[in-house]
Amino acid sequence: MIDVVLDTNVLISALLSPNGTPARILRMIISRQIRICIDSRILLEYENVLLREKFPFEPLDVSLLLKRILQIANVIVPKPIESSLPHEHDKKLYEVAKSTGAYLITGNLKHFPKEPTIVSPADFLGGVTSAFQLFQG
Question: pLDDT tens, 34-50?
């Protein structure tokens, strides 16, 4: 199974545009085609951002979504990484991805090191999952 860490911006995009690429990835997570990896910091960020007034999400819907994610996620305590990132608040995502060997799916590639496992939603769907499906063939 492919493991992924979902940047909060991808989760927000998935919920705001249910027919977009991030939404397809979220559906793959919910249907357990791929597995999301999180830690307590990521879950808290998801909650805090989704509940911001600027977003149209109902608190009950947010709670249900986060409970579902928690049920199916690989929840870990990652190994700390010494290197710095342009946006230190993104470090938690990078640490979970590195600790689990997961793909980090983000809409902000410039916030992270250039690595083959740090991908945009389109690159994840276009390349990673296609190659995996062929391999599973």
Answer: 999 999 999 999 999 99
